[in-house]
Each structure stands twice: as structure tokens, then as C-alpha cells.
Design goal:
By secondary structure, this protein is an all-beta fold. It is built from one helix and 32 strands. The protein has a 24-stranded antiparallel barrel. The chain has a two-stranded antiparallel sheet with strand order 1-2. It has a two-stranded antiparallel ribbon with strand order 3-6.
């Protein structure tokens, strides 16, 4: 509940004890909880906190305030059932482009949440449907040497995600690799001072093949993940993790140990070591390890760090995200900030150097980065970075030096923006690579014209020119607009429109949500996708008007039953 007052506003929030995890206490024993309340005042670029926080102490949670005096709190084991029913009608253009194929599907699903103990929760999902979740944001795929990371957005995998996190040179568990789970279950929480996470899933996607003679046709992949982290003292801990994925005759297994150790208020040391074994559908086996040691000192003014990370050439994992293998990286950075506390709130400079060799000792990359940034009292920021790089590609050493400038503004209640522009040299990753000149842009504009209306407009561009010929290699733009209109506290309309010049596609998504409570809601959505065609006479660049590629209408009802 909220209300405007003569001197500001008040807000009241009610959180059921059943929604919280806390250890049981004996009759009359006092509960002591960590608590922090923070208010961000955008116009002043200020964060006001209830419990004092010092920039000279690394870590936010360790500076929480304390709430005590509570006794005899409920320790009932919460049971939640969330059944869902989804109907979808879809049509897509056939391969010959002359007609549409239509389909209609109705499916039911079930979600279960049960408190095994007051501090340990079981989540289960059967035939989950995530049709109401926001679509993945488009990313520029042109001229990318390494794979792009797509963040997770599905609620089942996001909740409790922190229990599985490991700071490592690779992302150990990337749940987007579980594409179409038939069912999933996980246990997350604490056992004394030990944080635990255990997850199993059955993924149908790998076996959904067109050719029935292909290995694994009609089969599903079995996923098992186990994680435990023992809290030693304060922010120091040591943990272990193991992941396993089996599909047909393939497997992907990983095991590792990691530690985080706090020294004083400003120093933190992180270590991790993992080993993986992998066999693909062709029967090829790979084995490899990865490890990292990191020292970090973070203070109010002076911060610096050192890191050494290794990823073997044979390191493979089907459940994680590995951008690059065969690397031996050494990194050092230092940063100093001044706090004049005037119209310039803070400003500072930073320097970073990284060197990457392969397993044979051949230098692959160096980066020397010098930057400066400032924050202003009007909630404005400015940043500039100069990179002098070396990158080895196809046996050739290139120097793709870049300049990056950026900034943001977020003082007005009606709009805010942030942007970044980089220019300089870039490698064209083709069979005969060369060093081109180009620029990249990333810009986000947030509009709030009315209290019930919000819109986020993003523009990402990438352009490269061949200096030898003066010809343009590519000029890619992705424009995306996400707008919401809150009719009432329960009824919401969302629109996502995205245009990609590289793929020549336009996507339009509408979603209406009527929410009865936190878990009971009705979703009705419409999705349409158009694509540009090429003329038959010239298959290079000449487009003719957009045509519909596919569209779908869906309705989803989910209920929350709490006991």
C-alpha cells in the first residue's frame, strides 16, 4: 500500500512468514535477522540506507543491520501447488513459401514448492510453459569470433540460482542449455552453515530431430547438478560442484572445488579448480581442466587486483558456457577514485593489462586499457577508455585498437538514457582476415511519460569498412522497443517490437496479464514475425517487401494454491 503525504510518500509492504526461509528456534528463543533498507534518490545520485554502509569495507551483505526480538515464529512447512493450462494456435510459412502450416496445442503443467525444512525448499515442475516470459534480446551476431551469451529469464531456473553460482573462468552452469524440460526438480537452501543446491531435469530438445535414423532420435537428455558451499567465517567459504549430462551415447561431466577468503575489510582471495570429461555424438572424447586464482583489494579510493586463469584446449561442458578454450590468461588492474563531494560526486582513473597465451606458449592476445570516469550530482556519468590490443587470428597478429566513450543521465522522472560508442580498428573474421575500420553503438532510452506508462528503447549497431577498397563490409542495426501500460494494479499490457537489419526480420509481441495475486494470473499473448525476401535475380542485397514468416496466439492460466 502506498500514499502521498505533504512531505513525500509512504509505502507499506506485508511479507508472509511462509514466503521466507529461516531456521527454527525453540519456544521463547529470539530470532536475529540481517536486514537492510535502501532508497535510491535518482535526482541526487544518492542511495540512503537504514544500516550504515562504508565504501572502505568490501561487501554489502556483511554490513546489514540486525532485527531481533522476534519469538515463536511459524515454522510450518509451506506447500504451494501451481497448475497451468496453456493453449496455442500457430501458423508458419512452408519451405516453398507458398502456404502456411497451422497447429493447435493445449497442454497442462504443474509446479510444486514444498518446504522440506524451515530453511530447505523443494521445487518441482512438470511440462513447464514459459510462453509469457520476455523474449531474448537480439544481439549482433555478425563478425563474432566467439559465441554470444544469452541470459536466463525462465522463473524456475532463476529462483535459487545463486546457490549454484561459481566464480570461474567459464560459466559452470548455464541453464539455457536445458532447452525444453519435460520435468525438473531442485532443492535449495541451507543446512546449518552450508548452502546447498541440487537439481535434476529431463530435456526433450536434443532428441527432437528431423531424421529418425539419427543417433538419439526421440530420446531426452538427463541433467544432474549438485552444489554445496560451506560458510567458514564472515564472507569466507569453500565449496564443491558437480554436473552431469547424458544423452544417447554422449556424456558431459564436471567436478570442481572453489574457495573465497576474506582478509580484513578490503581484501578478498578467490580460487577455483575444475576438471571435465566429454564425449560427443561422434564418439570423440575430450578431457580438460580450468583453474583460477584471484586477488582483489577494494577500498573507497584505491582498488587493485591480480588474476591468473587457465582453460585447457580439451575443456568441454554441455551444461555451461565456455566462450574460449586453450587460454593462459594473466590480468592486473588498478583504480583510484577521488571524492570531491561537489557537483562532481566522484571521478577516477583505471588501468588494466591482460595477456593471453595458448598451451604451446604462443601469445594470442594482449590488452592495455586506460580509462577515466566521473559521476555528477545531477545523476550523470561520463566515461572514456582507450584500448591498445593485440589479437592473433589465423596466425596473423592484428592490432585492433579502440576508443570507447559513454555516459548516462537519470535525473528526470520522465526519461533517462545511457549509451556507449566505440570506434577504431576491428578484425574481419573471414577466410582471408584483414583489419578494418568501424564503429559500434549501444544506446538505451527509458521513457516514463505517464505514471502508468514505461518504454525502453534500445539500439545496437555495428559497422565495418574495408580500408583497402573503401567498401562497407556490413552495417548491422538492431532496434528494440519494450513498452508496458499498467491499466490497474492487476491488469498490464506489454509490447515488444524488434527490427534486425542483418536477419531482415521484424518481430511483434503483445502480452496482456491479469494478475490476481503473486502466483495466480491469466496471460493472453500474440506473436508475429516478418522477414524480408531477396529478389530471385539478385540474391545479394536487394530486398522486396516484408512478408509474414509465422504468428501465434496463446492463452495461459496459472493458479497458486498455498497450504
Amino acid at each position: 500500500a502506498g500514499a502521498l503525504t505533504e512531505d513525500g510518500w509512504t509505502a507499506e509492504l506485508a511479507i508472509p512468514f511462509k514466503s521466507l526461509r529461516y531456521p527454527a528456534r525453540g519456544a521463547g528463543d529470539v530470532h536475529r535477522w540481517g536486514l537492510q533498507i535502501q532508497r535510491t534518490i535518482l535526482g541526487k545520485n544518492e542511495s540512503a540506507v537504514w544500516s550504515p554502509v562504508s565504501r572502505a569495507i568490501q561487501g554489502f551483505l556483511r554490513q546489514l543491520g540486525q532485527v531481533d526480538g522476534m519469538r515463536d515464529l511459524s515454522t510450518s512447512r509451506n506447500l504451494e501447488l501451481q497448475p497451468t493450462v496453456t493453449t496455442v494456435g500457430a501458423s508458419s510459412r512452408t519451405d516453398d513459401g507458398l502456404s502456411f502450416e497451422t497447429s493447435r496445442v493445449a497442454e497442462a503443467g504443474l509446479g510444486v514448492k514444498y518446504g522440506l525444512t524451515s530453511n530447505l525448499t523443494l521445487d518441482f515442475t512438470a511440462n513447464p510453459d514459459f510462453s509469457q516470459v520476455e523474449s531474448d534480446r537480439g544481439q549482433i551476431e555478425t563478425n563474432q569470433r566467439f559465441p554470444l551469451f544469452v541470459p536466463e529469464q525462465r522463473p524456475f531456473f532463476i529462483e535459487g540460482q545463486e546457490n549454484f553460482n561459481v566464480q570461474a573462468p567459464v560459466i559452470v552452469l548455464h541453464t539455457k542449455t536445458i532447452v525444453n524440460p519435460r520435468f525438473g526438480a531442485k532443492v535449495t537452501g541451507k543446512l546449518g552453515r552450508t548452502l546447498v543446491g541440487f537439481m535434476v531435469a529431463d530435456d526433450e530438445a536434443p532428441g527432437q530431430l528431423d531424421d529418425s535414423s539419427e543417433p538419439g532420435y526421440g530420446q531426452s537428455a538427463t541433467v544432474i547438478v549438485a552444489r554445496a558451499r560451506q560458510v567458514l567465517t564472515g564472507d569466507s567459504s569453500i565449496g564443491v560442484i558437480a554436473t552431469n549430462r547424458n544423452f544417447a551415447d554422449t556424456y558431459s561431466r564436471l567436478a570442481g572445488i572453489d574457495g573465497q577468503f576474506r582478509i580484513g575489510n578490503t581484501i578478498r582471495i578467490r580460487t577455483v579448480a575444475m576438471a571435465a570429461t566429454h564425449r560427443d555424438i561422434e564418439g570423440v572424447e575430450n578431457r580438460g581442466t580450468t583453474y583460477q586464482a584471484q586477488f582483489e583489494r577494494q577500498g573507497r579510493s584505491l582498488s587493485y587486483g591480480f588474476a591468473r586463469a587457465v582453460v585447457d584446449p580439451g575443456f568441454r561442458t554441455d551444461l555451461g558456457f565456455v566462450r574460449r578454450t586453450d587460454t593462459r590468461a594473466t590480468e592486473a588492474s588498478v583504480e583510484y577514485a577521488w571524492w570531491p563531494e561537489s557537483w562532481v560526486t566522484t571521478w577516477g582513473s583505471r588501468f588494466r593489462y591482460e595477456r593471453i597465451n595458448d598451451a604451446a606458449g604462443v601469445l594470442q592476445n594482449t590488452t592495455a586499457s586506460l580509462g577515466a570516469s566521473a559521476q555528477f550530482a545531477a545523476n550523470m556519468t561520463a566515461d572514456v577508455t582507450i584500448n591498445r590490443d593485440l589479437e592473433r587470428y589465423e596466425g596473423i597478429d592484428f592490432h585492433p585498437n579502440r576508443v570507447i566513450v559513454g555516459g548516462s543521465y537519470d535525473r528526470s522522472r520522465y526519461f533517462s538514457f545511457r549509451g556507449q560508442y566505440s570506434f577504431g580498428r576491428a578484425i574481419r573474421f573471414v577466410e582471408n582476415p584483414f583489419l578494418g575500420t568501424g564503429n559500434e553503438t549501444s544506446f538505451t532510452l527509458n521513457l516514463r511519460p505517464l505514471s502508468r506508462v514505461r518504454s525502453e528503447i534500445t539500439l545496437n549497431t555495428s559497422r565495418l569498412v574495408n580500408p583497402a577498397t573503401g567498401s562497407e563490409e556490413f552495417d548491422v542495426r538492431i532496434l528494440r522497443a519494450l513498452s508496458t501500460y499498467q491499466f490497474t494494479g492487476r491488469l498490464l499490457l506489454r509490447n515488444i517490437t524488434e527490427y534486425d537489419t542483418s536477419a531482415r526480420t521484424v518481430g511483434v509481441n503483445l502480452l496482456a496479464t491479469y494478475r490476481v495475486n503473486a502466483g495466480t494470473a491469466l496471460f493472453v499473448g500474440y506473436d508475429d514475425r516478418f522477414e524480408g525476401r531477396l529478389t530471385l535475380e539478385d540474391e545479394s542485397t536487394l530486398p522486396i517487401p516484408m512478408r509474414r514468416a509465422n504468428r501465434a496466439v496463446f492463452a495461459k492460466l496459472q493458479l497458486l494454491l498455498r497450504y
